[in-house]
Design brief:
- This protein has about 350 residues and is of the alpha+beta class.
- The chain contains 10 helices and 12 strands.
- The radius of gyration is 19 Å and the shape is globular.
- It binds 2-oxoglutaric acid (AKG) and fe (ii) ion.
- 2-oxoglutaric acid binds near residues 205 and 266.
- Keywords: Iron, Metal-binding, Oxidoreductase.
- This is Blast:UPF0676 protein C1494.01.
- GO terms for molecular function: metal ion binding; oxidoreductase activity.
Length: about 350
């Protein structure tokens, strides 16, 4: 169960310095979408991140999903292993140490990716996990609804032709063979310093940018998430605003908008304070991706903007699928078949 956590309120964070834009989604009617679109445009072009409040996803649902993941992690290893992510697919369970962002440093976290709301993606253990499928499905649907709203707001922000973005994201959570959208549950275990492999050099999540259109991230109050804001190379703690969901732009969106929107590098560090280090951390991410076949062409979505002659002739257009494959081979080497988000 999630116990009450002590908020890292004394640390210098982007939240404590009011240095991260906060976007209020309350009363998301037709007129509100214009305001949200403008705020998102400013946030993603200046900072690459924002915190969404009044987003409509109840805290209880997020906490229930974390509880369900805890129950999953309590299952015997041989049961968990039945749900392990297989090479060439993006869904399933990954145990600590299996993911290596820089090719060598193991990551101290458990993750579970869901790309479709079906029995292949979602564990159904009637005895031990009776509520898992229901709790995760309802939360995933909420994240899809929130993403749909954000996509509409981005259409306003970018002045795209109507439904331009929505139509290109029509298969969210329909399976990684058609769309790479993923709900990822994450648990970072407590760090016990005298256990081998858990102290020096270990990372909770290595520095990276997310690949897709954008990511929605709910995190508990344990802290550790850091970002490099545009134009700087300093790592800054994000901090915790209770009830908020962080949005960060992904690399595809950055390519799509000719870098008008940033994909900010981020990571999760082992907290420097010993008392916090010895507690686990939960987060949940929804990676919103376009359909795999979508051509990521800036000309389609920046229709109202003038482009230089150089931009229109030199630009080679790839599909979302091709760009992700290219990213894997740049990250893991050309032989890698690893299918891995973020
Ligand atoms: O756990 C977090 O707060 C961030 C996780 C993340 O960035 C990722 O999985 O891509
Ligand atoms: Fe990420």
């Amino acid at each position: 169960m999630i116990k009450s956590k002590i908020v890292e309120d004394k640390l210098d964070t982007l939240v404590s310095r009011y240095a991260v834009p906060i976007i209020d989604l309350a009363h998301c009617g037709k007129s509100v979408i214009n305001r949200v679109g403008q705020q998102l445009d400013k946030a993603l072009s200046e900072k690459g991140i924002a915190l969404l409040v009044n987003h409509g996803i109840p805290d209880e649902k997020i906490k229930a999903a974390w509880d369900q993941f805890d129950y999953f992690l309590d299952l015997p290893a041989e049961v968990r292993d039945r749900y392990s992510r297989k090479d060439g697919t993006n869904y399933g369970y990954v145990s600590p140490g299996m993911e290596r962002f820089d090719g060598k440093t193991p990551e101290l976290r458990h993750t579970y990716n869901i790309c479709k709301l079906d029995d292949k993606n979602i564990p159904r253990e009637a005895e031990t996990l009776p509520d898992f499928a229901e709790e995760i499905t309802t939360l995933a649907n909420d994240f899809t609804a929130l993403s749909t709203f954000i996509l509409k707001a981005l259409e306003v922000a970018l002045e795209t032709p109507p439904k331009c973005f929505l139509d290109k994201h029509s298969e969210m959570l329909s399976g990684d063979d058609v769309n790479m959208t993923t709900l990822r549950m994450i648990y970072y275990p407590a760090i016990v310093d005298d256990e081998p492999g858990q102290s020096e050099g270990a990372v909770r999540c290595g520095a990276h940018v997310d690949y897709g259109t954008f990511t929605l991230l709910a995190q508990d109050s344990e802290g550790g998430l850091e970002v490099q804001l545009p134009g700087g190379d300093k790592w800054e703690r994000v901090g915790h605003l209770p009830g908020s969901i962080l949005i960060n732009g992904g690399e595809l969106l950055s390519i799509w908008t000719r870098e008008r929107y940033h994909a900010v590098p981020h990571r999760v560090v082992v907290p420097e304070r010993a008392k916090i280090r010895t507690r686990g951390r939960h987060s949940i991410a929804y990676f919103c991706h376009p359909d795999n076949s979508t051509m990521i062409s800036p000309r389609d979505i920046l229709a109202n903007q003038t482009e230089s002659a150089e931009e229109s002739t030199d630009e080679k257009i790839y599909s979302a699928y091709e760009l992700i494959q290219k990213k894997f081979s740049d990250t893991y080497g050309p032989s890698s078949q690893e299918s891995n988000e973020s």
